[in-house]
Specification:
34% of the residues lie in helices and 22% in strands. It folds into three domains: 2-43; 70-122, RNA-binding S4 domain (Structural Genomics Hypothetical 15.5 Kd Protein In mrcA-pckA Intergenic Region, Chain A, Roll), CATH 3.10.290; 130-297, 2-Layer Sandwich (Pseudouridine synthase). The protein has helices at 2-41, 47-52, 72-78, 84-92, 151-154, 183-192, 208-216, 251-259, 290-297; strands at 70-71, 96-98, 101-102, 109-110, 116-118, 121-122, 130-135, 164-166, 174-180, 196-202, 218-220, 223-225, 229-232, 240-245, 264-272, 275-276, 285-287. By secondary structure, it is an alpha+beta fold.
Length: 299
């Protein structure tokens, strides 16, 4: 019995030692593999690795992009003239310039302030927007925030583009006012002018002789002031006048009647080029249709 127990105990002791050695060997092998893998992959050094003093090189830092901005094909597509795929074709064929230089590199990035042109025409990074407002009294025609209530408050939700008023109406004048972010449109009609028809009310009846003088043109402060058309309003008192001008502002209206000795009580813009106030209540705005825009192209 004692002899058998001795042999059995000896065997068990040998088994425990073997298992311990096996575990140590496995742990050493796993540690070695872990060490090799960590070295190979170039991952950030874990705390335990730092404690053991292994020589692990950190991953190289990513190089920052040389130029932030918007891809050129997206910039062109955002302008509304074509899709991104079509823009790639135009870029490849040399129809696009950036700051005066032809660019036909795919993936080229530009800044919003860059001068990007397609076939000679300057593009805006946002699609052109045209908004027509029927302005009420009490709002200044400006995009300055220091002027109290402005027309920009009335069209704040009309467009995501940076639209601005084209032309002016005095704070207490009413009627149609056009907004756009189309610089080409603005430049064209600032130079050429857009005919606007005003319904004007004076403090007293306008004399026929003064009506004739306005038609013929007035010399005020050494400058000739002329209008497109002027007439009495049908079926209304003689103090209500229809006046058409091409000036972008309306201060000339007060200048004319002040010169002739009349006070201007009310000024209301009823048409701008082909546009009218039909179905546009006071204080409301609408987007111009493509047909509306095309009509301006024929002016």
């Amino acid at each position: 019995m004692s002899s058998t127990q001795g042999k059995s105990g000896k065997g068990k002791s040998s088994g425990r030692g073997g298992a311990s050695r096996n575990r140590s060997g496995a742990e050493g092998s796993a540690s070695s593999k872990s060490k090799d893998l960590t070295k190979k992959k170039g991952k950030p050094t874990p705390p335990r690795v730092r404690e053991l003093g292994w020589d692990v090189k950190p991953s190289p830092a990513k190089k920052p992009n040389k130029k932030e901005g918007i891809r050129l094909n997206k910039y062109i597509a955002n302008s509304g003239i074509c899709s991104r795929r079509e823009a790639d074709t135009y870029i490849a064929t040399g129809l696009v310039t950036v700051n005066g230089k032809i660019v036909n590199e795919m993936g080229h990035k530009v800044e919003l302030t860059d001068d990007v042109r397609f076939d000679g025409r300057r593009l805006s990074p946002e699609q052109n927007a045209y908004v027509l407002l029927n302005k009420p009294k009490g709002f200044a025609t400006t995009d300055s925030e220091s002027k109290g209530n402005t027309v920009m408050d009335l069209v704040a939700n009309a467009s995501s583009g940076k639209i601005k008023p084209f032309g002016r109406l005095g704070r207490n004048s009413t009627g149609l006012l056009l907004f756009t972010n189309d610089d080409e449109f603005r430049q064209k009609f600032t130079k050429k002018g857009i005919a606007r028809l005003f319904h004007i009310e004076l403090d007293k009846n306008l004399k026929a002789a003064d009506l004739k003088r306005i038609k013929e043109g007035l010399k005020i402060d050494g400058k000739l002031v002329s209008v497109e058309e002027v007439s009495y309003i049908n079926n209304a008192p003689k103090k209500e006048i229809g006046l058409k001008i091409k000036h972008t502002g309306n201060s000339v209206i007060r200048t004319i009647f002040d010169h002739l000795g009349y006070d201007t009580v009310r000024i209301d813009c009823v048409t701008i080029g082909p546009l009218t106030k039909k179905d546009l209540p006071r204080g409301r705005w609408k987007h111009l249709s493509q047909q509306d825009i095309d009509m301006f192209g024929r002016l």
